[in-house]
Design brief:
This protein is an alpha+beta fold. It has eleven helices and eleven strands. The strands form three sheets. Strands 6, 7, 8, 9, 10 and 11 form a six-stranded mixed beta sheet that branches. The protein has a three-stranded antiparallel beta sheet with strand order 1-2-3. Strand 8 (220-231) and strand 9 (236-242) form a beta hairpin. Helix 1 packs parallel to helix 3, helix 3 (132-158) crosses helix 4 (169-191) and helix 9 runs antiparallel to helix 10 (382-401).
Length: 414
């Protein structure tokens, strides 16, 4: 085994083997989560040569199938309520006043009424079932305390003309966030509504947004939404990762084109839930001669003696295609139940994204180890390579399950 290359930037593992007797290279390329790049090796003369990707004959334009679906990967945050967010913002504003006051020439510290504000907050949260009227009254109180503290902070900053803000970046960032949070909460309180654009649900992780899912036990989830494609070989690719809610059906074109870029051919069949079956997507797949496994649009055809068997066969085929979507649901369950993908503990958007993609990398390595390694690798290389792969799996699994996201992400070069 000549070399093992891991592309840390794209989380793509390239494993290829060189035999000096036969002067050819055997390699396996595994797409972890993004597009494949071609590995480079050195021949006997020391000249770098690019390995050309194995493409299908020109006559083959469609091969394989692709399963599409979307899921939400939840962040580990406290369940957000307006009252709890306002109370947290008020406490941060009090710490800002405590940090700014000693750096000014003022003789009297601004009043914060922190004890009264805390007592008013606890009087509501300790109630077993506070009504809407009481919640609204509590929000109003916390908004008033927070507004007073923000005005005090502005006055303290105005007393430092021509000087940089004497706050560390962490407190300064929190100051920006609580101002935006106050503007949102004040607008919702004034308009008597519960929604606003780009609503903040966590001060520590302001990139997280609420995503309506409509599930029975979880109507709202808080985290990143993924558009995932699964090939017939069991390799899952994260095609899109966004923190805002979006319609996953709009990603079908880009996912099909990504399949074409990875494999050199278009898929023969696209399996997806009814959200992907828009008229625009159906026309796109029809133009490329790709079968979409879904119910036809429009009014169902009238059953007659001539088309009775044909309609029955089409319905049976749709049910069979729908059952073929089960593997991608199992892949989501494997990631969430086995690798903690439903409780991402990273704090920033970048480390959370790396955490999520590393989990898919681990699952793809397991597929590789199960389906290819034991049958494709020559017997002499099997014991050594098995130890290497097991070492990778143990390290990556430990990283994804570790509480400290920063230490794990440094393994990937972040």
């Amino acid at each position: 085994m000549d070399d093992v290359i891991m592309n840390k930037r794209n989380f793509i593992v390239f494993i290829f083997f060189f035999s000096s007797r036969r002067r050819h290279t055997r390699y396996i390329s595994v797409t972890g989560v993004q597009t494949c790049a071609l590995p480079i090796y050195k021949d006997n003369d020391g000249v770098s040569t690019e390995i050309k990707e194995n493409t299908e004959p020109d006559s083959v334009t469609h091969k394989g199938k692709i399963i599409l679906d979307a899921t939400v990967v939840e962040q580990t945050i406290r369940y957000p309520t307006d009252l709890s967010l306002l109370n947290e913002a008020r406490e941060i504003s009090e710490r800002l006043i405590d940090a700014l006051y000693p750096k000014t020439d003022r003789n009297k510290k601004p009043r914060t009424y922190r004890q009264k504000a805390r007592k008013a907050y606890l009087a509501i949260v300790k109630c077993r079932r506070p009504g809407k009227k009481k919640y609204r009254q509590g929000n109003k109180q916390q908004l008033q305390y927070l507004r007073r503290n923000l005005n005090s902070i502005e006055n303290l900053l105005d007393s430092l003309p021509g000087r940089a803000i004497p706050l560390p970046y962490r407190l300064l960032r929190q100051y920006w966030i609580i101002q935006h949070l106050y503007a949102q909460q004040a607008e919702m309180y004034k308009n008597k509504t519960r929604r606003c654009d780009d609503r903040l649900v966590s001060i520590g992780q302001p990139h997280v947004r609420p995503i309506i899912r409509g599930k029975l036990n979880k109507p709202v989830e808080f985290g990143a939404k993924l558009s995932v494609s699964l090939t017939g070989d069991g390799i899952a690719c994260v095609d899109k990762l966004r923190w805002d809610a979006f319609h996953e059906g709009k990603d079908l074109k880009s996912q099909v084109e990504a399949y074409k870029e990875r494999h050199g051919v278009y898929p023969e069949k696209v399996l997806a839930d009814p959200l992907y079956g828009t008229r625009e997507n159906r026309n796109y797949l029809k133009a490329l001669d790709i079968h979409y496994a879904g119910k036809p649009l429009g009014r169902p055809k009238k059953v007659t003696e001539e088309n009775k068997d044909q309609l029955k066969q089409a319905k049976k085929q749709r049910h069979a295609d729908y059952r073929q979507r089960i593997p991608i649901e199992g892949k989501f369950g494997q990631g969430k139940n086995g690798y903690g993908m439903n409780r991402i503990k990273a704090k920033t958007a970048q480390t959370s994204q790396a955490w999520i993609r590393s989990i898919f990398l681990v699952m793809n390595l397991l597929v590789l180890y199960q389906h290819f390694l034991l049958s494709e690798i020559m017997g002499g290389y099997l014991p050594t390579f098995r130890r290497i792969v097991l070492k990778w799996l143990n390290e990556l699994a430990a990283i994804t399950k570790h509480n400290n996201a920063g230490s794990g992400m440094r393994y990937f070069g972040f």
